[in-house]
From TrEMBL:
Gene3D superfamilies: PAS domain. Keywords: DNA-binding, Nucleus, Transcription, Transcription regulation. It holds the Pfam family PAS_3. GO terms for molecular function: DNA-binding transcription factor activity, RNA polymerase II-specific; RNA polymerase II transcription regulatory region sequence-specific DNA binding. It is found in: Nucleus. One of its GO terms (cellular component) is nucleus. CDD domains: PAS. Its main location: nucleus. It comes from Pomatorhinus ruficollis. This is NPAS4 protein.
Length: 90
């Protein structure tokens, strides 16, 4: 995405999300926030690149960690995003 580690520390992940993906991501967040430590979630979203000129598709695995959610992000292609979104919706 072009950001350095220090640029992302303490920054809300929501500020990087594509506006069309906010509702879906927020629903997953709320579902996991109310679940136990063994809960897991997956989603596909777009994150804004540092250059501000575009978006990068990302597959995300989520799990609660204390009062926060830990997100492991994997950059994927648009074709992979489409396929994964179909699989996760099923």
């Amino acid at each position: 995405l072009g950001y350095g580690r220090a640029e992302l520390l303490g920054r809300s992940w929501y500020r990087l999300l594509h506006p069309e993906d906010l509702g879906h991501v927020a629903r997953q967040h709320l579902r996991l926030a109310g679940a136990g430590p063994e809960a897991r979630g997956e989603l596909v979203t777009r994150l804004q690149r540092k250059d501000g000129l575009g978006w990068t598709w990302v597959y995300v695995r989520l799990r609660p960690e204390g009062p926060a959610l830990l997100a492991h992000n994997f950059v994927i292609s648009e074709a992979e995003a489409w396929c994964l979104r179909q699989q996760l919706a099923a």
